[in-house]
Amino acid sequence: MTVKPLNTLSQSSLQDYADCPRRFQLRYLEHLQYPAVESEPALENEKHQQEGEYFHRLVQQHLIGIPAEKLARLANTPNLQHWWDNYVAADLGLSGYSLFPEFTLSAPLGLFRLVAKYDLIAVKPGERAIIFDWKTYRKRPKTEWLAPRWQTRVYRALLVQAGANLNNGSPFNPEQIEMVYWFPEFPIEPANFPYNATQFKRDWDALTKLAGEIESASDHPKTDDRQKCSYCPYRGYCDRGIRAGDVADAEAEMEAEELFDVNFEQIGEIAF
Ligand code: SF4
């Protein structure tokens, strides 16, 4: 099996490593594509994932100035229409902010480069920065489930570490940063995560430690927590069950939603 050197880390690869080193190995070192059928019902999940990608693109187009009325015509499935209506009706509090949709930041992390692609960073230079992430989940995850996810930690920490260009050349103080997960299916139940210097230090120290572990790892064992295998697309490689969700609990189901989440790095261009 070819193992290419890994140069970058992202919230998804870090989450995979934390969840199961074997999954990290298969996905990021051996570059095995996710098998086509990830879970049942496969077609429904695939459609939901495509709608999620399309929703992200519609919002991005709106944020760069294309009128909502023009984009509304492209929200052409019941889910998309419902999400789009909720988005247009929502007050995300963006008035007075400079908007940076689909923005990439990166910074050195050990021997790697940590990279994050943000759905939206809204900035009032010298005052405040709000990170928005659109989540087209079918269930509203518990806020306590989201808090320790690597995305929540990486996105805020990296904005402190690498966001000076968005703040007139000065790094943001952690206290100026907040992250908001906004769910088009649950528009009045966003999950908000403010930040502070203690959390930033904790996160950056943890990221540095994890990058060191990944760098020096000589093997990539399967997770002991078989719940993590319930919806994992690589079950077939690990002899961990054939049917999805055989031993699933609520947390595993939420992790499945995350696996089918829009992976911004994989969104192709959608022609308008
Ligand atoms: S099936 Fe289980 S052990 Fe195998 S990669 Fe997935 S989570 Fe890891």
How would you portray this structure in words?
- This protein has helices spanning 11-19, 21-29, 42-63, 68-72, 78-89, 143-146, 150-162, 197-216, 235-238, 250-259, and strands at residues 8-9, 98-109, 112-124, 128-134, 177-182, 191-194.
- It has 272 residues and is an alpha/beta fold.
- Strands 1, 2, 3, 4, 5 and 6 form a 6-stranded mixed β-sheet that branches.
- Helix 1 packs across helix 2 (21-29), helix 3 packs parallel to helix 5 (78-89) and helix 7 packs across helix 8.
- The structure holds iron/sulfur cluster.
- Residues 20, 22-23, 26, 222-223, 228-229, 232, 234-235, 238, 240 line the site of iron/sulfur cluster.
Determine the N-to-C terminus distance: 40 Å
Poorly predicted regions are 266-272
What does the largest sheet look like? Answer: 6 strands, mixed
Structure annotation, total helices: 10
Instruction: Give the strand tally.
Output: 6
Compact summary:
This protein is α/β, with parallel strands linked by helices and 272 residues long. 40% of the residues lie in helices and 16% in strands.
Distinctive features:
single chain; 10 helices; 16% strand; disordered C terminus; binds iron/sulfur cluster
Please describe the topology of this protein.
Layout: E1 8-9, H1 11-19, H2 21-29, H3 42-63, H4 68-72, H5 78-89, E2 98-109, E3 112-124, E4 128-134, H6 143-146, H7 150-162, E5 177-182, E6 191-194, H8 197-216, H9 235-238, H10 250-259
Bound molecules: iron/sulfur cluster.
